[in-house]
Input
Amino acid sequence: MRLWNELSYFTCWISHQARLCTPPTRLCTPPTRLCTPPTRPGPALYSTHQARPCSVLHPPGQALLCTPPTRPGPALYSTHQARPYSVLHPPGQALLCTPPTRPGPTLYSTHQARPYSVLHPPGQALLCTPPTRPGPVLHPPGPVLHPPGQALYSTHQALYSTHQARPCSVLHPPGKALYSTHQARLCTPPTMPGSVLHPSGKALYSTHLTVPGLIQPICFSTRLLTRFSLSPSFLSQDIRNTVGNIPMEWYQDYPHIGYNLDGKKIFKPIRNKDELDEFLDKMENPDYWRTVHDKTTASDIRLSDEQVDLVHRLQKGQFGDVNFNEYEPSVDFFTNEVMIHPVTNRPQDKRSFIPSLIEKEKVSKLVHAIKMGWIKPRKPKETTPQYYDLWAKEDPNAILGRHKMHVPAPKMRLPGHEESYNPPPEYLLTEEERMAWEQQDAEDRKLPFLPQKHSCLRAVPAFSRFIHERFERCLDLYLCPRQRKMRVNVNPEDLIPKLPKPKDLQPFPTTMSLVYIGHSSLVRSISASPTGQWLVSGSDDCTVRFWEVNTGRCMKTLEVGGAVKSVAWNPNPAVCLVAVCFESTVLLLNPGLGDRLVVSSTDQLITSYEPPEEDKEQAVTWALSEGPEHDNGHRLTLTHPKAVKQVVWHGKGDYLASVMPDNSSNLQVLIHQVSKRRTQNPFRKNKGLVQCVSFHPLRPYFFVATQRYVRVYNLIKQELTKKLMTNCKWISSMAIHPGGDNLICGSYDCRLAWFDLDLSTKPYKMLRHHKKALRGVAYHKHYPLFASGADDGSVIICHGMVYNDLLQNPLIVPVKVLKGHQITHDLGVLDVTFHPTQPWVFSSGADATIRLFT
Amino acid sequence: MGGLQKKKYERGSATNYITRNKARKKLQLSLADFRRLCILKGIYPHEPKHKKKVNKGSTAPRTFYLLKDIRFLLHEPIVRKFREYKVFVRKLRKAYGKAEWTAVERLRDNKPGYKLDHIIKERYPTFIDALRDIDDALSMCFLFSTFARTGKCHVQTITLCRRLTVEWMNYVVTSRSLRKVFISIKGIYYQAEVLGQLITWLVPYQFAHDHPTDVDYRVMATFTEMYTTLFGFINFRLYQTLNLVYPPKVTQHEKLNRWVSCSLQKLSALSASLARVVATAEEEEENQLDQFPADGEDLENMEAREKEQKEQEAQNRLFEGLKFFLNREVPRESLAFILRCFGAEVSWDKSLCIGGTYNVTDETITHQIVDRPDIDKQYINRYYIQPQWVFDSVNAKMRLPVEDYFLGVTLPPHLSPFVEEKDGDYVPPEKLKLMALQRGEKHEEEEDDDDDDDDEEYNDEVDDEDLTEEKNLKKMEDQRSQGKTLAVKVTPGKVKPWETGSVGNKVRLEKEEKAEEKRLAIMMMKKKEKYLYDKIMFGKKRTTREVSEHLRKIHSGSSFLLLLVL
Output
């Protein structure tokens, strides 16, 4: 039973091999029975058996099998007959037959090899060294390897008594010791050893045949020689491969390859062919094509015709031997009869008849995974087309809130003329512009590229920053915050407020009609007589001049003792008085112009003063002028303790206020009564530097402008009624509307504030018409006009209509910019005043002139 | 006081925004994946109004996203795919490392992929939305289609881009929707009107790219991935509108030449007569504008529209009946595309490229496009013109006289058709000439005459400006103020001549009055409006300055004196 088992196993394997080996390429000669019957008589239980070695080359070069021969005869295991075979592996690796070793005392002898080679189609030499000498046979190493490297057969045991095992090793010179312990069999008859090496270098199989007492192996080898005969020249050379099938590069750096029997180096043939020689050889040598280089001997070999034939045959996939019949009747190597006894007596393993637990575990794991849904069947590949009608159903509900909020990316700017390859010449940059462009930072440049002109389309080069620009666009698309910016696409004309046309608001002064020339220095102040016939002006040249308005004639010039700061004509038409202030004096003049009756009545009014009984201490001294001064027109002199800046008449013409700006005392404003020659200080407290003061035209109110505020006092109740915030830095001048409910303030920071007293304490309107500091403002008595003069030399006339209807806000329309004054010392217009009856305006300037605009 | 203390930054704008890093963490994505997701979904950062508040008091520069946007991203199925892909890569690497090739193969088979269809649909709920946003997609695909297989991106992407762009061009040719073309130094701009949307794209010149190192190709590739999907769907829909099958079949011609590169395919496709079936449909469309009873403004609008339509039809037939031959040095692809868009027959030398339908020797060729100074063998019955003629003619919507474009002639400047001059903008004289030509005036006017006209026009324009008016006024004021003398006597003033003078003076006076009125009104403007007004006026002044600069450049060489006179 055991035997059967083993045998069956063996057959199995063999058949398997055979399967692997198909189609079998049998290089060996047609099977010849080389073995003679055993020569040695004796008690050998096992008689000789004849082996028909047969090596089968597997096409991919794997298994090379020498099937053990079947024997005729009773002995199952007889002596083997081995015959060396060298089989060429198709990919062309040399197959080496180990040469026989020499008998003798030298244990480690050098090999004797008689190489013979078969040319493999790609041209590599196949060496087969037949034994040259009878003698000790080198037994190849015992284990026989199956091609994939599995040990198949156990080591042979020397069965025969005649055998002597001897180890043998071959040393390879470059120091890579290749030890192979051989077991040599010493047989009296020469043996023909054969070892077949697998191309990959693994010893595959070795057949050895001991053919005692026969010279046949030699014959055979000669036969082999004839079959695989080399060129005679080669044979004559005593160069043989003595190193075996080793990588030849081990000898690359040595002048020799291997050693001969005497231990001398076998030198490589001298080879100094260079590429050129090679080439010449290729060109000239007719046999070049059939010359191959043998690495193992480092020599060139010219192939004979038979060899070439062989090569051709092999290339065609035919058998090397012409006469080989590949369709021989098959021979059953093993018996097909089932043996009843096993080869061994070992009982069967338990595991061979119980199911595997490991497998069970694996299967159960898989089943569990499938149950749990961990393993899913592979999904079928999707078959929907790559593109289809995506918007086949346009669902209005698909438009989400997101889409309404979405800010689409702005499109790329479309190119202008300057981007053309052939732009109009005016778009090209000049040399300076180009320089400037190059020096600018990339962000500051107005154009991201330099305009260029090319004469033709062919001359246009690639744009080097193309990919950059595309990339930057990409960055913009996903990195830039987007914002919906309200682009103000307004017509600038629409921004301009719709105002009534100045034409419709006439009359107002439009042209300069008269220039009053005479002063030699700045004209600080002007004032018109209530009749409108005369004009008084005070200047820094210490004169006061009286002018006739209509003719521009200077009627009178009065020298006073200092630069005149302010002049004011008494608004009462029944009184002809002019207040002039210079230094710390306020002078009341009677110019003696106009109606004589009025002039004389004025004089009478002044002289009719009767001093009161009890003389009160007053802040100012009143002095009546006499003598030449009286003739000049001086009537009263009010000497103040400090320099006076401004004088203002009350509307009735009896009261007069004077301003002495002083930040540190409460004596800044004084109110004088001319008829009673009385003076009083209305304020007990200092509320700041007083800039100017004014009387309310109708009611007993008194306006005091300090630096930033205007305070309105009720003179009867003696209290503060209002404090107006002007939002200005420094008030320069102030005027009150004849109606008394509105007020304008000019300031040094170029603003004019209009207050509606009924409305609020904040300005109803701030006008920033002037470019420079305002110096004077004025209302017209009858016409809805007001004027402002400033250091920029212009007088701006505005229409300022105040309606009786309290609900309607005043209408303010600038109607005219009057220019004429020249700017001297950075000063332009210093004072403006309206004509009392006509829509005319007077302005005095730093250019020492007074101008009348009508 | 009772109640809970209000904590800072827990309400209001601070809770509406999220920084990029936080968003990334919330989505559990790497930065690269987050970036990809943002690109695909069209999410962009937002600039909060009060950055410091949103930044919780810090002023460090941060990128903010709307929290809503990030929440929206959370629901995106593609995020899961990203994660799956990450896992896949990890597994694959592991299998590679262990040299488990079967595992590698299995993993490869199950490689997780994703589709962008739903994102496209979501981003562009209607077709028109998508079409509106296709400019960038076109430019990008045209760029990618010119890439060589240098490993900057996947080869499949390049071929897909090529295919899509060819399909697009074929659509434009078939629907005759090209409107404007422009040769710039960057490339060639095309503008087509597709379903009422103006679509502009830029095609680089056919050169090998010098790939910059400071460009992140992954970003561009992500964009292209999205764009190709979008573009394919749009192409599908557009072909559908033409009653054509999508994807279009490769013509037999191409099939024979499978080996030729795609760019050649492009060309051959262009030269082959495409889908003639559509022509009938188009003819039907021509008469589509029905007459509706209308009055007043509607009537005017209607007429204008009709006129426009007619012009459009005329433009579409611009080169109909002409037979062009492209010399070997001209850019075949663009010219063939343009010419075929306007109904011309195009061919080129067979040895150059496939697709040439007739030879140079064909006697019926009317125009040969040549881009070299001279050509040896010339046929007498055809015009030899430079390629710019085609571009200029398309932009002018008429066949321009060919004399200016003959071989060796200095070409007239090539103007951008995209510039629409507003009032006061600089108009190059060539454009004025062209406009005159379009109006039907004779071209053969004397050059000098033309120039003078232009100059006068400019002069008028400049006159309109406030600047000059103010100058005039100032002058007048000066004159007025000089009327004074230093004598004591009263001197009679002079009456200004124009105040009583002729009609011209009256006109002048009126103008002056108007100007003054305006100036006074400007004085009354509110501060805010004044600021705005000043800004607008500043811009206007800048344009006038530019105009004068251009004028100066024109005249600097030839007629400097003329300028002085002006």
Observations:
- The CA atoms of residues 77 and 383 of chain B lie 61 Å apart.
